[in-house]
Amino acid sequence: MNQQEQSLERTQLPPVTPAWSREAEIDIARQEFLRQRLAIVADVQQGIYPFKDIRLTRADVEWLLINHEQGRGPVVWSEPDQRQRQGLDLRGSDLRRVDLRGLPLACLRGGLTQPEWVATTNEQREQAIIHLEHANLSEAHLEGALLRGACLQNASLRFTNLEQAILFQARLEESYLRGAHLEKANLMYAHLEGAYLRKARLPGADLRYVHFDSATLLEKVTLYDAHWGCALLADIHWNDCNLSLVNWLRMPRLGDEALARTFLIRADSKKSVKEKQRHLDRYQGAARANRQLAHAMRSQGMSDEAMPFAYRALVLQRVVLLRYMVWGTSIFSEEEAGHTGIRRRLLDMWGRLHAGASYLFSWFLDLLAGYGYKPERSLAIYLVTIFAFAIVYHATGGLSNHEALIFSITSFHGRGFLPGTYSLANPETAISAYEGIIGLFIEVSFVATFTQRFFGR
């Protein structure tokens, strides 16, 4: 090696470290303290966690990330094979008002898993909750983070990556979520009163039972895209949240409906009552989500925007009726399930007949006028009926085209009940009577259609 190469080697720059780890300089005593805490084995039942009630700083978190899993480092969410790793265990820790901007905290453990949550008491759940009130998590990577019940009130989550994060029952009141990525996140029962969600991305997110209020801002929020689908919206507490700021035209179907349609009874569970009940629950939830959203929109004067969702609610309810007709109602009714023998069979038969009749009538109303939301169907059926019967009159009565058309129109609107110059034995009289009956049903649907369309009833 010549002298020039040796000089270049001596002046070679040290390896570049990530920007987030440049401030991980902490004293030896603090490092030793963190190592001791890391050695603690978590015990959910006893409420023991490595950093429970410990006040951590940004430098502490950075040091923990560097030394995570014996120096392997943080979870890299962009590498799919790493998504099964567990992130830092910060359950019960105190990170209030800490600046955690841009940190790689994917798969962070800041709460309990679903099985742990079910098996513990409220006190045990509280002990595992991470405290991030007023913390700055802007542009941080929290993909797949476990934040069940986390306290994030007034936290800054600007452009934070929270894809597939678990935020079940999280406290996010007055949090700043501008542009946050919450695709496929679980936000069930979360509190978002006063949250700022402008341009937040929520496709595929589970928003069931979420709490909004009039101070929650949903301006330009995205609830649907082709990759993640639409958010689930059943049983949301809208509480006068302004819905006019959302582009509802971009959502072909709510996520609740997509979930119901993809939930299939497994081949080995076709006779399982539990599976059938769950299947019905999904469809009923989807119908309820559409109905509730339509009602919330109407209460804010958004009648036109509410129509597609009100229509989908009725279509989905018809699917429920079909399932009742096929499976019977006794397996879904505790009262009927309590009977045995002939009485139960009779109740089941009556339930199937009632569900079948309701299904057929619902289908007829949909075909006739789209439950009042599609008036063009009524007009099309009206014209088809008039011209179809005109052709029949022309073929059987020897009437000209013009006469047959006039006769069809007058029969449709009531003449079919009066034979006039035709005797009762004439086939035209019978045909005219049938057309009059059909016309009565179509005219009733016309009234219902236009009442629904123009008066929102």
TrEMBL record:
Database matches in InterPro entries: 5peptide_repeat (IPR001646), Pentapeptide-BTB/POZ_domain (IPR051082)
Q: Which residues cross the membrane?
A: 353-373, 379-397, 431-451
Keywords from UniProt, A to Z, are: Membrane, Transmembrane, Transmembrane helix
Superkingdom classification of source: Bacteria
Which PANTHER family does the record cross-reference, listed alphabetically?
A: BTB_POZ DOMAIN-CONTAINING PROTEIN KCTD9
State the name under which the record lists this protein: Pentapeptide repeat-containing protein
